[in-house]
Amino acid sequence: MDEEEARTRLLDAAEELFYAHGIQAVGMDRIRAGSGVPLKRLYRIFPAKEALVTAYLERRDRRWTGSLREAVTGAPEPVGAVFDWLERWFSEPDFRGCAFQNAYGELGAGGPAGVLDAVRRHKAELRALLAELVPDSPATADELLILVEGAITVATLSPGPEPARRARAMAERLTGDGPPPG
Q: Which GO terms describe its molecular function (predicted)?
């Protein structure tokens, strides 16, 4: 196994375990066992748990944000497409909320700097993506961010698509998109 394959296997195991069980509950030995990568090699690639957690979050951010961006690009109602995408995500059997909210909630404001930077960058990228959908209204982008984050939190506590549907209805009223009130 070369370095790239070892890194990928480590990140795959880290993502599965951290997302399902939490960062603090999963030790490096469990990552080693889940990945099949020897502990010595794990520490050569990721010298500290903070480096592994940061890399896991950065990779998840690229995939998550890329998937969302793909869903809204060219959509006839891009704001609605955000909530359609969330609805599909919330319906996945392994949905456990936002990995970034979870990491921040678990580690707090005093957590490792690299991890907190990854969380903040992710949220800034999400806000920037939403701002692209409503370029004439920074305040609306901020309100959409609150709707997205709120829907994610509610779906974490009550899994299923309904929080995305309710948030979409609010977003449509906010932006004037969608059907007129009945």
A: DNA binding
